[in-house]
Amino acid sequence: MRFKPRTAATKPLHVAIIMDGNGRWAEARGWPRIEGHRAGAAVVRPLVEAAPNLGIRTLTLFAFSSDNWKRPPSEVSALMRLVREFLDAETSRCCKEGVRLSVLGLRTRLPGTLRRAIASAESATASGKVLNLNIALDYSSRDAILQAAMRLRGAAAISRADFSAALSNPPSRRATPDVDLLIRTGGERRLSDFLLWECAYAELYFTDTMWPDLDAEDLNAAIENYRSRERRFGGTPPAISDRVRGDAGLLAVSGNQDCWLH
Ligand code: FPP
Fold first, then answer.
1. Ligand 1 pocket check for 105: Cβ under 6 Å
2. How far does residue 21's CA lie from ligand 1's centre (Å)?
3. Does 20 qualify as catalytic in the annotation?
4. Residue 55 contacts by C-beta under 8 Å, 6 or more apart in sequence?
5. Is-catalytic flag, 178?
């Protein structure tokens, strides 16, 4: 499908997605939950292909939360295997397409084969400039915040930028940018310990569509919805005379900080 082209002035977006509903999608068909995860993994490729044309520069997918270790061991190992298979299958394609793959979260508890697949995917795709594709694995935002606080303890002064950088796990990873749009599929309306600091001003979009049914048209609809909103970051709407219209929305200057209004 073709999407409305974006102008160069369009602010590149960070879209983060809580990919929920795999289990229910499978159960509704009388299938084991794992089949829902398998179908969910298959959805990622077409969305990655669509993302740059939708104006997305960073796409962060919540694949496994630190609380997901509570699931039955067979489901946990199937999820680990699916992520490894995804990395093995996608790395060379990502290299060609300029997609930089990286994983956020604790790595120490992941299986060795998965850790090696992550290291090799990250180094092979490190020069990608078209799309940053982050996969959150064994990720807990509250744990990341605690860890950052521990790293910075004793510092005389801590800026927001310092704290964002300290949130990175592994520490060598570049800071995750603020999220512009958080999407959750599967009908639930909660954040589930995902990118709490980075979502401080994120626009939230919830859809009843189960993750395995989500397609590029749905992602486009979420972005169009986002672009219809006005982002004020705590400020007031700018005077009409200060507004610069574009297909990206409205650009205003509030104090000494540029704000994009969509
Ligand atoms: C939540 O649905 C989904 C997960 C915990 C796993 C998400 C994983 C994938 C989509 C596959 C692997 C990912 C990549 C990036 C290759 P749920 O099982 O909680 O669904 P439910 O709420 O219907 O039970």
1. no
2. 7
3. yes
4. 6, 10, 11, 12, 13, 223, 248
5. no
Q: Whose CA is nearest to atom 22 of ligand 1?
A: 21
Which atom of ligand 1 sits closest to the CA of residue 82? Answer: 12
Q: State the DSSP code for 32.
A: -
pLDDT in tens, 163-195: 999 998 777 778 999 999 999 999 999 999 999
- Domain residue ranges in the chain: 13-231, 238-262
Indicate the CATH number for domain 13-231: 3.40.1180.10
In angstroms, rounded to a whole number, what is the distance separating the alpha carbons of residues 186 and 194?
Answer: 16
Average pLDDT, the chain: 90
Q: Rg for the chain (alpha carbons), in Å?
A: 19
CA 48 to each of CA 199, 201, 231: distance values in angstroms, whole numbers, following the listed order = 21, 24, 25
Catalytic residue among 22, 53, 68, 213: 68
Catalytic residue among 20, 132, 134, 180: 20
Q: Evaluate whether 169 touches 105 at the Cβ level (below 8 Å).
A: yes
Tell me the C-alpha to C-alpha distance, in Å, between residue 82 and each of 14, 101, 241: 24, 16, 52
Give distance in angstroms: CA of 221 to centre of ligand 1: 21
- Residue 12, sorted as left (phi over 0), alpha (psi -120 to 50) or beta, turns out to be beta
User: What pLDDT band is residue 46 in, cutting at 50, 70 and 90?
Assistant: very high
